[in-house]
Sequence to fold (335 residues):
Amino acid sequence: MSYILSIESSCDDSSIAITEIETKKLIFHKKISQELEHSTYGGVVPELASRLHAVALPNILKECKPYFDKLSAIAVTNEPGLSVTLMEGVIMAKALAMSLDLPLLGIHHLKGHVYSLFLEQEALLPMTVLLISGGHTQLMEVKSFDEMKVVAASSDDSFGESFDKVAKMMGLGYPGGPIVEALAKKGDDKRFNFPIPLAKSPRMEFSYSGLKNAVRLEIQACSKDEALSEQDKCDIAASFQKAATAHLIQKTKKYFKISYKNGGNFAIVGGASANLYVREAFEDLCKSYKLKTFFAPLEYCSDNAAMIGRAAIVAFENKKFVSIDALKAHPKSPL
Ligand code: KG4
Ligand code: ZN
Fold:
């Protein structure tokens, strides 16, 4: 049996995994999140994130030493992400590959999110995949590891980012997704009539900046005379989450109408796919189109090295090795 060691540091999670190549089994996985450190700023501060990776990654690596003699490759997320944080993982991967004399694999972060679906079940492709994270909102036709076609993407903010910004506007901390989802459960989603983005536009694209501004104006109006009450925050969260999700549903439905008439597979991945309100909405939509719906296990929705390791097995099987000199971090790298 042989293992791949994979490293993820594209944003604010330092994570390393060891995956068995033959069985695709996860042998070791650890992740140190920096949410607390960034929460005072209401978002990720790249320089701080990179300094925290420089401490956390070597600490996790120490725990991987017992597996070193069974390693067959080193994999690392090298695109896309924050330039300074990607570099932390890339430098560590190069040093490991050099000192242990192992081949290197550079893994695209978004492919990692897609393969998070196959951590606890067999790979099942082709599939239509909606990726909703802090950095991306895109609908993709996924045929194989090498054939992933984006059919709609956000022209401005991403879905997860809009949750982060709404939370920040209400002084609720970071990451905003789980906080807004929790508040929304106690709120009245009909109190505020936020516009569903691009509702009348025929374009296959996503947009969240207009909705974010509508929420900003409502928050300003509600807090003109006195601070927002707890109930105000819950109602804003619920009304916002409803409009944000309706936008995903409308555009995906539009795509289904054109492309899917006789069943198939559909999945949602990325940090925001942990949102249960979103999951339920898509389960209903997929039922009416007779599509099977798939989600990644909740603990592997947000960034992690386990999904990078799972994708790395495919890259390993296809011998997609890169030399130490050729491996570079690519901060902006669409699929
Ligand atoms: O995939 P991820 O860990 O990082 C990126 O690749 O961007 O996604 C993080 C994003 C954050 O914007 C976070 O607020 C959002 O996912 N998120 C959520 C939820 N949990 C995390 N958004 C909505 N509802 C959630 N429950
Ligand atoms: Zn991600």
Remarks:
- The first strand starts at residue 3 and ends at 8.
